[in-house]
């Protein structure tokens, strides 16, 4: 199995769990985002230095979701995170 690229959270993104919702704040833009449930878990896995493959494996084990649906939704979520500058792809 080949590894997927590592995802990194830039220093200008801070986050904290507040009453079960993960709140992300982009200090450069002054914009915040909220994540719950699976999105929150995916962020936690990114923070634990999991790559895309590790996130997929963990979430499939933890939630009742088909791998095909998860992969589609995760790729959309990661593209959104990347576009907004919330995560970067490590070189």
From TrEMBL:
Superkingdom: Bacteria
Protein name: PqqD family protein
């Amino acid at each position: 199995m080949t590894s997927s690229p590592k995802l990194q959270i830039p220093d200008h993104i801070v986050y904290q769990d507040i009453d079960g919702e993960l709140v992300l704040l982009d200090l450069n833009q002054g914009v915040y985002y909220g994540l719950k449930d699976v999105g929150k878990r995916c962020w936690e896995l990114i923070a634990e230095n999991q790559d895309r493959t590790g996130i997929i494996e963990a979430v499939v084990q933890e939630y009742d979701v088909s791998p095909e649906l998860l992969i589609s939704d995760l790729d959309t979520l990661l593209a959104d995170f990347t576009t907004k500058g919330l995560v970067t792809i490590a070189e």
